[in-house]
## 1
Amino acid sequence: MRPFPFSLPRKTTSDNSQLLYLHIPYCHRKCSYCAFYSLVTSDGREAYVDALCREIMARGDGRALRTIYFGGGTPSVLTIEEIARIIAAIKDSFDMTQVEEVTLESNPEDLTPDWVNALAQLRFFNRLSVGIQSFNDRDLRVINRRHDARQAAVAIENAAAAGFNNISVDLMMGLPGQSAADFADNLRRLGELSDLACIKHLSCYELTVEPDTILDRQLAMGRLQLPDEEVLVEEYNMLSGWCSANGFEQYEVSNYSKPGFRSRHNSRYWNRTPYIGVGAGAHSFDGSRRRWNVSDAELYSMSEQVPYEEELLTSEDSFNEYVMTALRTSEGLDKSILRTMLTGKDLRQVESLLGGFVDAGLLTETPGRFMPTAEGLLHADGMACKLFVVQR
Ligand code: SF4
């Protein structure tokens, strides 16, 4: 690992990234479960947008982009003018002729008719991801979200009316105090929205309690209680049933889509496609090196050249990352990639373990791939850990 800080070389051309990720680390308020670096203020945002545009122009080398993702944080806290400036920097710095998918993450309270119409008029984004998390007001208060259930539904209607017809909804399972009946009601409300035909994608994550979050402290003090394992299993089964009944296919442990509407950006991450990440704390990957910008928005904004750290991945790291992500997807492991990553005893050991997972009904084997079954997706992390190759 190289020492921190050092300067960003201008316009690197050593990789062929086709993905661009932009990190916007600002939020209206802190969700109780959130362990990400995010700032609950608009102070310094203008300088941050300036710095983001500088970094885009410094690293843009005219390569053709396929997917672009504005993530955070909450990118929808930005004004339309700020977004337009960022778009201008991207268009000046990259070839946009092959772009397939451009996503912006948003929170419901920001999707007012004025804002979302103005966003649509930029004619840049063709996919909107909306962090709803729950349609139950009690759940939303418990996790300190700023919107309520009514705003969540109105946000989707506003986005659809503005012309967004490829919307992804985020939901959460296992919220404190949530019963299986509450979750069933969430799915019912989602079903009503799906009638609008604009929701093409669903990300549904089980709540995880990260250390030092507000939620962690509330649980430690006994103020909240998480649902039992049986409730979670019931919720997961309901989710699978709802998705099958409504034409959403599971293509990753936590992601479901209508046919043809998988997230192209995330699917490429999982395929280990190189990517450029700009903004405070954003990660980049060029096929062999991973680098991450300083995750301090003020330092990021003040620096003429962005401070970052990086590490060269060993072949073991690359293999372990590949199995960890690929086994979480319905596409699974590509045998030809396995053979380029491993040889000799390691390859034989891994093939033997994979054969065992096939016998256990966790994977199916085709001439080119090992693909998780529905049961296998539930055990993806466990299988990956058993396959990890140890560094010598
Ligand atoms: S909106 Fe997202 S990034 Fe912001 S506090 Fe909530 S979970 Fe964290």
Note: The chain has a mean pLDDT of 93.
## 2
Amino acid sequence: MKTLYETTQATFLGEKTLEQKYLELINEEYSFSKEINILDKIDWDFKDFTTQYLTHKFHSYPARFIPQIPLTFIKIFTKERDTVLDPMCGCGTTLVEAFLNNRNSVGNDFNPLAALISKVKTTLIDENEFRYFNKKLAVMKRYLDLDYRRVDERINNLPNRKISKIFNRVVISKLEAIRETLLEVKEEEHNELFDFGRVALSSTIWSLVENGNGVNVDDLFLKKVKFMQNKLNKTTKIIKIIPKVKVICGDARKLKVKTNTIDLIVTSPPYVNALDYYRAHMYNMLWLGMDFDLFRKHEIGGHSHFITNRFRLLSEYLGDMLRSIIEMNRVLKKGKLCVIVVGNSSLEYELIESHKFFATMSENIGFKPVKTIFRNIDKTKKYTSADIGKIDDEYILVMQKTNDTEVVANDDNFIEGVVKEQMIGFREQIKIVQGTSIRGRKPTKERLLKNINKISEAIETIPQDIKVKG
Ligand SMILES: C[S@@+](CC[C@H](N)C(=O)[O-])C[C@H]1O[C@@H](n2cnc3c(N)ncnc32)[C@H](O)[C@@H]1O
């Protein structure tokens, strides 16, 4: 990667960096047909680009996408004050990019932690408020040691005793002291600071889960707070008019968003059989008093069930994604774009090309696939889907809404019919297409036969598997 000095020198000598050329390209205005062609001029790998600027770095989040993906579509396909939606917004990458580029945005995620992080990343806080907060934290720090006497009381007061298994008594005591201080901040009606502090606390807990005990918790927390304040202050200086941001903690299959109101959707859904978000964030959620069990029930793509027949996960996933795409169609204005970023995954050594399923299913519900862009993921960067381990590329599916869909997301008969068609197609494909296995690991002949039988069984259970649980 070029150093800042080299980059500055290159600019000085008249040689533009890839990043500068990219920014020039997306800042131009184009006609719609040209806009689509501009997508071909972009190097989607975004190698060596700066990706963790401003509020993007507030909190780790598995399988987030790089900001340049939403940024590109926001810049090219919307104008200022338009409304951008991410129905599965995770840590709010799309929302932050909309915010920085003077677009209104709506973010939705069933994970309450995701909704909290997204909100905090797009909420500017006044300097006086930060002054009050810093004083409060200074008092907390000064009296922190005295609080060790109350460790047992604290452990008993924890939202869930499971937590005590991964943190030692000193760590628990300190985290509780921070939590109590934040509750005081809330009682004193500084709600935005309360949320801001909870994100810093959650980010501290994330570091503890990743690095174990032995970290100085209060110092780490205070460092995070300072870092976040600095980034928000910088953002405040950039934003001229504050765009509207609405964050909903809800289900993408039942969006609380008005029909035909959205100018662009950019989203990345969970992958089938890849990661349970509720598990990744369990400790954070417990500490913040959030209901991870409710989220677990509604999480799309989770893999902790259907252990004996993993292909049932696929039909369940396709059903959930079809419902979500129907909702995307409903809220999007006609002629506008819906961009879905997803990687391949695997089930029983069979390759699952989710983007292909999405493209075909969407054609039934008023979308026209415009383009599918392939991109390599830089595996050295933690923010990518490479977190999950086996995914090192992803696809950007670009679709245009051509019609208002005639079906509704809770039409089980329709969902059942489309998923059945997809599963039958998948069964036929693995019979005839060689090399459908992932990363060169082909299923043996025996396993292939077993898989075909399992898919047939999964087709039988579609009516129950596609039902929305909970
Ligand atoms: C790949 S992540 C999105 C990451 C996001 N693009 C970012 O940059 O942070 C997928 C998200 O889908 C969310 N999700 C899972 N099931 C959901 C549901 N039923 N409704 C809404 N969101 C859901 C997960 O909580 C997760 O945040």
Note: The first helix runs from residue 4 to 12.
## 3
Amino acid sequence: MKVLFTGIQPTGLLHIGNYYGAIRNWLDLQYKYDSYISVVDLHAITIEYDPKDMRDNSFELALGLFACGLDLKKTKLFIQSEVPGHAELTWIFNTITPLGELERMTQFKDKAKQHRKNVNVGLLDYPVLQAADILIYKGEIVPVGEDQVQHVEFTREVARRFNARYGDTFPECQAELTATPRVMGIDGDSKMSKSKGNFIGILESREDIWEKLAPAPTDPARVKRSDPGTPEKCNIYSYHQLATPEPELTEYVAEGCRTAGIGCLDCKRKLLENLMKVLDPIQERYATLSTKKGEVRDILDRNADVCRKVSGQTILEVKERMGLTPIWKI
Ligand code: SF4
């Protein structure tokens, strides 16, 4: 079975952008590949953050991911900083990475603009840590959105460079693009994100979600109830396409929009109904898991143990090849 690696930052909550943009895809892939899924807290500390929230945020995210349907027994969900090999391999990869390549990364340029007062080395080195995350488990499959494809390419380059210099060690991974690469925020202006406040949280109540949906912008052509609209120009319709699995129901909404057969509020109510069919079971599982936090913590501990063993083997192999002293010989 090929190895899959992917990561998600502990930002404090999961929203439907995370769910439809990434997590739903992982739920299928976890049975196809030997899956390592990491709460990447070492990545999260490259920008300003509050240390007192970090540990709770990481645990809550893990809880949320299990509630979404990650297999508690099969998928190795773990917290990145609990596996020291990631940082160790990053340093090793730093020594074979040209600085210019990192400076050219689109995400670095964007983040450097966004966080002008904190352009730290970690921000620049982010793709190297990502390469280490993947390659330490000899990952071959990396489910990502389009904005991360450049980093997967970079990881392939790191593997090639290492293999050329020290001998064949790492596979060349490939990006597995999600079917929904970009979920727009409820404002319809930019990608859904916690920092922009334009999200629908997966644990939000029906009433709270409705408060966000009801005033959300739609196709501006639908000024009056009798004005026909173009669903493809409406962000609400894009949510229908995600949340309504039955094509005939999506078509019913599209047709109703084009002919002014349904009003925008009816359309949004239908969306809420379909969205809650997905979110209700997640919220129920979350409530159950929240009463068993000790068990969830034990699972994360066991997963971290497995990850330390697997990554430790890779570090040993790397050190042998590089002429460094493996720790067990000291
Ligand atoms: S009917 Fe639905 S798809 Fe059409 S504009 Fe209104 S909310 Fe959007």
Note: The first strand starts at residue 3 and ends at 8.
## 4
Amino acid sequence: MLSVKKVAQPPFTKSVLILVTALYATATLADISDALQVAQLSDGFNPEQKYMASCFACHSTGAAGAPKVGDGMAVEWEPRLEKGLDAVVANTVNGLNTMPAKGLCFDCTDDDLRAIVQYMIETSQ
Ligand code: HEC
């Protein structure tokens, strides 16, 4: 993630920053809040990669009754989301029945897990 705190930046970084700023300026409000959220995640964190590494094994197949992730799987998530995203994220952090705590991603922060859950929900529309 680019840090705006750096003062002396080489020209390349500067032009990347200008590009990023221009992209943000054209983004919708929802995109901006996504971008702000990404800023609180672990360095180099990529929700899709972490999902593939930690969660895919159960959530792609629905093993042990895991809600499935993928095209057209919104129906698996709607009843779970009725309790609110915060509760769903809390269940991810703490575990739920056969769902292991942190989904076995022990280097994930709570914010990282929230980002993965959002990724799972978004890719299940
Ligand atoms: C060993 C298999 C397994 C792995 C690995 C796993 N899950 Fe799950 N997950 C489950 C099962 C089973 C459930 C359903 C639990 C229930 O409702 O009883 C579940 C449920 C969930 C839910 C819904 C919680 C709710 O409140 O209804 C979320 C969100 C979730 N998992 C996220 C993740 C994330 C993120 C990862 C990876 C970091 C992950 N899971 C890894 C098996 C797994």
Note: Residues 19-23 have pLDDT under 50 and may be disordered.
